Amino acid sequence: MASLALTKLSLSHFRSHKAARLQVDARPLAIFGANGAGKTNILEAVSLFSPGRGMRRAAAKDMAKRPEDIGWKLAGLIESDGRTYEIETSSEDGAARSVRIDGKPAAQTALGRIARVVWLIPSMDRLWIEGADGRRRFLDRMSMSFFPDHSDVSLEYEKAMRERNRLLKAEVRDTHWYVALEGQMARSGAAIHANRVAALERLRAAQEGAETAFPSAELELVQSEGGMPESETDLAEALAESRFRDMAAGRALVGPHRSDLYGVFAAKGVLAKDCSTGEQKALLISLILANARALKADLGAPPIVLLDEVAAHLDASRRAALYDEICALGAQAWMTGTGPELFAELGARAQHIEVRENAGASEVILL
Predict the structure, then answer these.
(1) How far apart are CA 26 and CA 75, in angstroms?
(2) Mean local confidence (pLDDT), 279-295
(3) Structural domains of the chain, count
(4) Mean pLDDT of the chain
(5) Strands 29-32 and 351-358, how do they pair?
(6) Model pTM?
(7) What's the pLDDT score for residue 212?
(8) 364 strand-pairing partners
């Protein structure tokens, strides 16, 4: 079976880590330590071996260790389907992060063709009750795991929409200024919508027939009042027709940026937003596992999975079920918790790492 794992990781002046090195294998990793020791910072570092701003969505300048603030660097070896890739990503003087693959400069999107990384972090616990923008980000991250170029079309759409919004706010009425921008929004917007729909289909298929201790979620992509035209031509026409209405609002009122994701607890027929906190967490875990199963079916190997403080929200039986599913999936899962007892059910199936604070910096110990 094909495998995907980050087997070496070094951090230099990244967050609380002045210098840290890990050499691990493809088994899950149980990372424990006191609050503030630097556990989540390790997971954030791993998340940066995929395209985007990482699991915290932080600016590159905010990841540098304080008070030195001299920039940061991450390096690692990724074993993917029998090949080894040397990856470096860094930022100096607050500049946007750069990427090198096997010693050569590369675009961030190239990372998505080497490693797929999915994650669940505590801030996502409010997914079902927060604003629609959080759910769109969640769905777009899953879409990007299936379609690495999804990040490119999303950036193209955002750039064109910002320029069009600037014209709208200035009450520019000359149609020639809008045609090219709306054409670009239509092309990239239709691609965004198609990727999202396809990603949801993959998730539905991965949940069907899966025997799991976590409840399945029925997912639906819903649109704003204006709807979301599915074809490039229809979206271009809708943008043109909405131009004066958009001018009054000062922003685009039609397009994929107006979509929302609805989730339903399938067994109960209850909207996810109306479920208990524990049920909402279980639904999120179910979706992350479904994402991983779908990627394994597509690519032959599961993604790297990051689960920050996930054990704290589960009772012992559900923790054991989660660990069994991760091991059966064959995923290299990086998991954090405050104490080793939270990972007792894993035993020798996992590698155990302690993170301590030492003289104002994080210390990483592979046990």
Answers:
(1) 17
(2) 94
(3) 2
(4) 93
(5) parallel
(6) 0.93
(7) 85
(8) 355
CATH number at residue 44: 3.40.50.300
Question: 32 burial class (0-12, 13-18, 19+ CB within 10 angstroms)?
Answer: buried
| Residues 140, 267 share a domain | yes
Is 1 a residue whose pLDDT tops 60?
no
- Give strand pairing partners of 31: 336, 353
Range of the domain at 142: 123-302
pLDDT bin (cut points 50, 70, 90) of residue 2 is low
Alpha-carbon distance of 232 to 239, in angstroms, equals 11
Q: How far apart are CA 248 and CA 285, in angstroms?
A: 42
DSSP string of 150-207, one letter each residue: HHHHHHHHHHHHHHHHHHHHTT---THHHHHHHHHHHHHHHHHHHHHHHHHHHHHHHH
Domain boundary, last residue among 276, 302, 328: 302
Residues 228 and 177 in one domain: yes
At 188 the pLDDT is 97
Helix axes 132-146, 277-299, angle to 10 degrees: 20
CATH number assigned to the domain comprising residue 254? 1.20.1050.90
**pLDDT tens digits for 120-166?**
999 999 999 999 999 999 999 999 999 999 999 999 999 999 999 99
Q: Based on the domain organization, do 295 and 214 belong to the same domain? A: yes
Rounded to whole angstroms, the Cα distance separating 198 from 146 reads 9
